[in-house]
Amino acid sequence: MAVCEICQKTASHGNKLSITRSHISKRSPRTWKPNLRRVKVLINGQTKRIYVCAKCLKDSKVKRA
């Protein structure tokens, strides 16, 4: 399962809405997955490859190797 190893962000579930003539006529399930990247990160002086979401990379929550 797709999980960010920094913020523990996982897939979220909801409904996809079909809008026809200003009425919501159909609802079908859908999934939103986090935008994960596999990066080399320094952890305790060692380099490891982990999955990190793009938001954690942008906010500099990890130190890249």
Percentage of residues in helical conformation: under 10%
Structural class: mainly beta
Biggest β-sheet strands, sense, barrel: 2 strands, antiparallel
Percent strand equals over 45%
- Average of per-residue pLDDT values: 91
Overview of the structural elements:
Helices cover 8% and strands 54% of the residues. The protein is mostly beta strands. It has one domain (12-58). The strands form two sheets. Strands 1-2 form a two-stranded antiparallel sheet. A two-stranded antiparallel sheet has the order 3-4. The mean pLDDT is 91.
Write the layout of secondary structure elements.
Elements: E1 12-20, E2 23-32, E3 36-43, E4 46-53, H1 54-58
Antiparallel strand pairs: 1-2, 3-4
